[in-house]
Specification:
33% helix, globular, alpha/beta, Rossmann fold, 7-stranded mixed β-sheet
Length: 322
């Protein structure tokens, strides 16, 4: 894996140089190196490394990245391959097909992508950041649209899952930095910044919006997807303890309140392009994610409420310009 990291550093430096972003290259490559070293120091890394060592790593020249199921490699599904892929459990965001094995992830992330894709501007030639990118499903969808896609996420397992695919797609301009947004240099490097499913996990949501704006070029686009509640400009849900069994949910605003937050942070041309309920068809337990999922987070007698009695999850996607 040291060879993998060295290759990623070289490719990221070359990509940034091609975009005349040399001033940020050293900082981002340093973050990449430090983040991956933390992944390698994680207690589960030997188990994940064992799985990676037993799974295909050859370069794939014709992946299917612009499809609901991101697909890499020819079909050679067999029980041993499935067993090694299961060693990277749980698989949260997807779906993926890896050398013929269908990875039925907890989230049907393709549904979310479909909601925003029809309104998405042209990403060709853009440098794009995905904050909280998970295992990288959306990075591959962005690359398929011509973007250079950089994802940040501090979760070590997601880094290992991303590496599984990137080893087979070394020349695709997708990069994973195992860090949080607080580590990123405050430099307007990106044409588009995605923050999907992150805002409600932040104790200080206004600071998160300010951080996102600091990473955008003038005129750059923020794509923000988050939980929302119904109501007017003064409506915001602050859970007493948990929301849908999640401890780390702090603020769930209404769309009008969220628009005020964005304006206060300096964004303009704000549009809400979609509001959709999250259902157990979109987020569910599967063999690839065997823990509790949305069905267990909702009231069994009234699925319009969470188990705590709050409104069931609804999500909005907003576009805003820097």
């Amino acid at each position: 894996m040291d060879e993998f990291l060295a290759g990623e550093e070289t490719r990221l430096r070359a990509t940034l140089a091609s975009r005349h972003a040399n001033t940020c290259a050293d900082a981002l490559i340093s973050l990449m190196r430090e983040g991956w070293q933390r992944v390698y120091a994680h207690g589960d890394w030997p188990r994940w490394r064992e799985a990676l060592d037993h799974l295909p790593a050859q370069a794939v020249t014709a992946p299917s990245l612009d499809a609901d199921c991101v697909t890499v490699g020819p079909a050679c599904d067999h029980e041993e391959q499935r067993r090694w892929l299961m060693q990277l459990h749980p698989w949260r965001k997807g779906p993926f097909r890896f050398f013929g094995t269908h990875i039925d992830t907890e989230w049907r992330s393709d549904w979310k992508w479909r909601r925003l894709a029809q309104r998405l501007p042209n990403l060709a030639g853009q440098c794009v950041l995905d904050v909280g990118c998970g295992s990288g499903y959306y990075l591959w969808r962005m690359v398929a649209r011509g973007a250079t896609a950089i994802g940040i996420d501090p979760t070590p397992l997601f880094a290992a899952q991303f590496a599984l695919f990137k080893r087979c797609l070394p020349d695709q301009p997708a990069f994973f930095l195992p860090v949080g947004i607080e580590s990123m240099p405050r430099s307007p490097l990106f044409d588009t910044v995605f923050s999907m499913g992150i805002l409600y996990h932040r104790r200080a949501p206004i600071e998160h919006l300010i951080d996102l704006r600091s990473l955008l070029k003038p005129g750059g686009l923020l794509i923000l997807e988050t939980l929302i509640v119904a109501g007017g400009a003064e409506q915001c849900l602050v859970p007493r303890r948990r929301y849908a069994k999640m401890r780390n949910v702090w603020f769930i605003p209404s769309v009008p309140m969220l628009e005020i937050w964005l304006k206060r942070c300096g964004f303009r041309d704000i549009q809400c392009i979609d509001i959709s309920p999250t259902t157990p068809a979109e987020q569910r337990r599967t063999p690839w994610m065997r823990f509790e999922s949305l069905a267990e987070f909702l009231d069994a007698d009234d699925p319009s409420r969470t188990v705590e009695g709050y409104p069931a999850p609804r999500r909005a996607i907003l576009f805003a310009r820097n």
